[in-house]
Amino acid sequence: MTRTLPALATAILIGLFTGTHTLHALGLRINTSASEPLGIYWMWPYENIPLAKGDLIEFCPAIRQQDYPFTPKGPCSGGTQPFLKQIIGTPGDQVQATERGVRINGQFIPGSQPKTYSETTQTRLPYWRGDRPLAKDEYWVYGSANPKDSFDSRYYGPVKAEQILSVKPATP
Length: 172
Fold this sequence. Notes:
This protein is α+β, with helices and mostly antiparallel strands. 15% of the residues lie in helices and 28% in strands. The chain contains 2 helices and 12 strands, in the order αββββββββββαββ.
């Protein structure tokens, strides 16, 4: 009995690990963050295709996990898990980000006023400020489920196409 329990626990862990990697290889992503609705998303590999507002993207943020301990550790070059966010700004859109919030093409984005500190870790948050059009390879992202608390482009700026791993188009 004492040898059976560790063997069973090991088998379960191997099964979970293998199953998770298999699901990931099939394009399924499990979202547990509050930025987007909780659930399982079927994502497609990103292959430099045109993206649209409303598309959901998975990307590696250009930040270091050690600077923002509220972000989960993972395989991205900065040590984070990939982020899952909705695109609200596409190449050519004029983005204006101030301490009051974000405007895209002159339209104010509700809930976009940036915070100074993370509520969970009291880490000082960066913030992107500017007034310029997005370049041909840049996208502005936003946490659509809980924008007020989302760690998104307000803090680290536009996402470059080279950071994008996969996409779930807003329209099939």
